Amino acid sequence: MNLLEDARDMRDTLVALRHDLHREPETGLHVPRTQEKVLEGLQGLPLEISTGSSTTSVTAVLRGGAKAGQSPTILLRADMDALPVAEHTGLEFASRNGSMHACGHDMHTAALVGAARLLAHHRDHLAGDVVFMFQPGEEGWNGARVMLEEGVLEASGRRADSAYAMHVMSNRVPSGLFVSRKGTIMSASHHLDVTVIGQGGHGSAPDTARDPIVATAEMIISLQTAVTREFDIFDPVVVTVGVIRGGVARNVIPDTAGFSATVRCFTPAAAARLEAVIPRVLKGVALARGVEVDIDFHNEYPPTINNAAEVEFGSQVIRELLGEERYFEPDRPSNGSEDFSQVLEEVPGAFFGLGACPPDLDADAVPQNHSPRAMFSDHVLPEAAAVYAALAIERARVTL
Questions:
Q1: How far apart are alpha carbons 159 and 135 in whole angstroms?
Q2: CA separation for the pair 183, 204 (Å, rounded)
Q3: Residues 177-227: pLDDT tens digits?
Q4: pTM for this one?
Q5: What are phi and psi of 232, to 5 degrees?
Q6: Torsions phi, psi for 251 (to 5 deg)
Q7: Whole-angstrom distance between the N-terminal and C-terminal Cα of the chain?
Q8: Are 377 and 195 in contact (CB under 8 A)?
């Protein structure tokens, strides 16, 4: 059995699928064309396939051919959705529909289809069952939670024993390098939406109005100050305001204004403190400026916490398959967030990053994930597929 050689033999097929997915990205929980392409890619394989009832997910189960006693179940996940970003890469297969696979989910999907093909070909070496979790709605839609509620962990008839996912990175990580770490690897994500209610009036006479725009601006600055003055620098918090709303004309004070932000942290202690600090700061500014404030602050995804033993196992699989130099453990987690975190709350497992910057470019100087100019190299697809497959084969063998 040579998984890597077999994966490289299917390179053209994986690249063609990835380009097809990239040309026609879809966002959110309903990605019907993407689902169709995944199902076409799995066609002819000895899989038990089901699709989601409330989303266009695909769950496929492969029964191992080398069973001995009670077979373990290994779950492999790929997210399928894109972002509402207009692409500006200039690639021949670039999207033209106003959305973009700017986070590389087309890469994950193609690699997992490749892993399904590899494992089906090598069923005689598979001492357990594999669940392939093709998930829509990772980008803020909590698709993992939907699939968990629909029973993806029990899809094989036995609760998954281990779960793995990977994510490509367009910058900072050298091309072809796998990265992970024990414990927390990604932050928690929180949603913040604020509406400030004042009293409109003429822009020439602000004293006769209660200006919600000035209060909104002060709230944004006050939150940034709170981050640096009320939280431990060794247990950091990030507040980024991505949307500001308010006003229709330069000489009109509106009745309302507001903003939306993403808030990140790494520990339950910081999350609990956020619950207290954010409302206090916002209400304090509102009181001082004579306006009212409505606050919607809630948790989205918990921190992504890797099981230490699964990271050790996975790193060994990667090193044995690709070489010692192809794996690295960073000393700190990423500020990004993942709904796969909810799978890892239920099942021991690990989340791996993979550098996918085009090899002729400087990974430290190119656009990052979510940029309309982010690019990911096809050359890592066979190795990603082989790593997915090797994790399943080796974990089933170890579990037995």
A1: 18
A2: 56
A3: 999 999 999 999 999 999 999 999 999 999 999 999 999 999 999 999 999
A4: 0.89
A5: -60, 130
A6: -110, 20
A7: 20
A8: no
